[in-house]
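Please produce the structure of this protein holding guanosine-5'-diphosphate.
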Amino acid sequence: MTTKAQQYLTHFRNIGIAAHIDAGKTTTTERILYYTGRTHNIGEVHDGAATMDWMEQERERGITITAAATTAKWKRSGTDEEYVVNIIDTPGHVDFTIEVERSMRVLDGAVAVFDSSQGVEPQSETVWRQADRYGVPRIAFSNKMDKTGASFELVLNDIKERLGAVAAPIQYPMGAESEFKGIIDIVRQRAHFYTNDLGTDIDETDVPAEYADKVAEIRAQLIEAAAEVDEDLMMMYLEGEEPSVEQLVAAIRKGTIEKRIFPVLCGSALKNKGVQLLLDAVIDYLPSPLEVPAIKGKIEDSEDTIEFPADPEGKLAALAFKIMADPYVGRLTFVRIYSGTLQSGSYVYNASKEKRERVGRLLKMHANSREEVTELKAGELGAVIGLKDAGTGNTLIGDGDDKVLLESIDVPEPVIKL
Ligand code: GDP
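Below is the modeled complex.
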């Protein structure tokens, strides 16, 4: 049961974006930050050229995508519901396998980006296995549909054959390569044509007649896959009844979180509407912190473990997952709060180092700004200034609480060479 204090968490998504080098992770991340920033008037933009200026500027200042966790806000298209999307940076290079694993621990879901002209590449397989090990639910984005050689079928086949996953296309491309025009949302049976303007509203049209048969075929398979994870839907399926959009979304969401369905989207991150539709899918199909298993902690001197459900009113349990040196404020310790509330100026106990530490200031990192906050609540990610001893993978608990160590990643994995 969700208490009133936990209610905000239903509108939280803590995600990572994983990809083979060159598949488009940077572009996807930058565009997400751009469009989420834009809905909140962080950047005033009037024409197409300004997008690039904004990104260039950010690149020069070097803060946008270098933050280990960036907080963005997104209003689900077609609704007034606003969501907090925390994007956790997952290092893109295989040499940082241990860092990838560490970041896997702090995210609740991931977007796997593939290059539609390349299919599933070796490094994607590596990250995939890591995500499997940490039980991270995923959706896929078959990017670069506009590139020569792009094939959605190639990506779908590779996901099935190389990754052994049940690929469930929830979108279908209209055209490919230079003829790529947009996508069809299979669940809602609506077409979205890409545009050149920078609007965040997503215009829909009916499915063009030429795609009707293909969409009907894929949708039937999707309903069948969804029925496998949802009894009500199975009953309807057997009776030959058509599920509502809400029922279908809920069943696919359940299947995604249980890792029995793997929704696959397609498009182009470089073009307008590419990442907006991806963000909508993140909201629809990836879990909130309340929908993933609670993190466990090992009690000192015993074999017993204790669970920390995402609850701002629970005992403090946080994990430091990245230390960065900042030229202005010094040492930044990025933390994820699993349970309880971390207050600026308070004392915490670093259970890994067995040291009491004082929390200085707290920051939330946005695309082009930093926000100083007085507290970070369960489910939130941010940076702490002032922790002297905390290292990556350290557990922070309340000062005076019984000592526990959160499940973490202590054993380095061998570096995988491609
Ligand atoms: P990363 O290594 O995964 O971070 O990949 P980048 O985001 O840096 O993208 C690699 C290259 O692919 C860059 O030159 C991008 O401009 C290009 N790219 C990214 N997305 C798309 C896309 O949707 N279509 C096309 N044609 N190129 C893309």
